[in-house]
Amino acid sequence: MIEPASAPPRTGRPPRSGLTRPTALLLAATSAVTAANVYLNQPLLGAAADSLGVAPDVLGAVPTATQLGYAAGILLLVPAGDSHDRRRLILGLGTASALALAACAVAPSVTWLVVAGFAVGLLSPVPQFVTPLAVALAAGGGDANRGRVVGTVQAGLLVGVLASRAYSGALAEQVGWRAVFGCSCVLTLLTMLVLRRALPRVPAAAPTPYRATLASLPRLFAAHPLVRRITVSGALVGVAFGAFWTTLTFLLEGEYGYGSTEIGLFGLVAAASALASPYAGRLADRLGRRGALAALIGLVIAGWLLLLPGGGSLWWLLAGVVVLDVGVWGGQAASQTALFSLDPAVHSRLNTLYFTLRFLGIAVGSLVGTVAWSGGGWPAVVVTGATTALAGLVVAVSPDRILPRRR
């Protein structure tokens, strides 16, 4: 049974958070750098395909492999955060992911790049350790503080995702796509050096063996309707998200004639989502979990409707990107805020369940979006994204009997 997180004692003044502002900003920056490594290959597909002598759609396997690796890393590694020193895990994974980025930089073939991309994803679930660590440090601030902390770290992650698309595309245009992976390798190593000196230690939430935490995941998923609903809905919205950002490269290259620089900079139009994310956790407190997710997933669907004429109109495309990203990332922050209202001893495992299904959904979306593009062009991609987002909305707001408790 998962118990709600206990509230702080009521006193004359609010309890102080153990999370200082510099530490919060450092954790947000860590999320930014490590999250960027997962997404930076998307604007590079065309340039890498030309260099390796293959068709661009063949390189669709690279972001799919990276997302599958990310999902596997979240599933297999993140549960250890409930029973091991998160600081040590963050430093170890960050260093290993830098080595995987170096392997991408020297890839001589598509197969090598796919395998190295999978390794980058597998070793990059650092933000999924960072968020529970930040919540643990800020535990004295209560429920309202929890939403603020989740939103702050989420904003850092978003900056990383958006910046990765911009800088990877621009850098590839100037010095080649391999240099993008090399620069990311160096930046990741520098971040780990800073963390080694500045990151505080937090005792493990529960002295549970790693195998036991891993084995408890199915029971954790089955025991609580809230966990099942949020994770399944997150996966479906992930399909819609993955389908968009993978096929956007094909659309911008084929229909608009843009190069790597323009494609990378195009991601900056979604910067509004980074500004909205810190408020999404608070929205869950005001509207309730169902109300907040209904509003935010509704924005995802609205974004896809705006994207439909984007196959021939840049302005519709720009508007659709902003609306879709605000809904996707805001919904993720609201979902995490709801999950972190449960027992702190299982926060890493709750993150594992949510993000494993989330990134499996994104990986499937990358693949399905590529297939839809090949078979029906941009309209087929829009139908795919809107349909899966609608399914995510239904799961998020329907009564619990839609997903009955397993016995």
Topology of helices and strands:
Elements: H1 21-39, H2 45-52, H3 61-77, H4 86-105, H5 110-122, H6 127-137, H7 142-175, H8 177-198, H9 210-215, H10 217-223, H11 225-254, H12 260-266, H13 271-307, H14 314-339, H15 347-397
Helix pairs in contact: 1-6, 1-7, 1-8, 3-5, 3-15, 4-5, 4-8, 6-7, 7-8, 7-12, 7-13, 7-14, 11-14, 11-15, 13-14, 13-15
Question: What does it look like?
Answer:
Helix 7 (142-175) runs antiparallel to helix 12 (260-266), helix 7 packs across helix 13 (271-307) and helix 11 packs across helix 15 (347-397). The protein has 15 helices and no strands. The model is unreliable at 6-17 and 402-407 (pLDDT under 50). It is mainly α. The longest helix is centred in the C-terminal third of the chain and has 51 residues, at 347-397. It has helices at residues 21-39, 45-52, 61-77, 86-105, 110-122, 127-137, 142-175, 177-198, 210-215, 217-223, 225-254, 260-266, 271-307, 314-339, 347-397. Helix content is 76%, strand content 0%.
In short:
It contains 15 helices and no strands. The chain is mainly alpha-helical and 407 residues long. Residues 6-17 and 402-407 have low confidence and may be disordered.
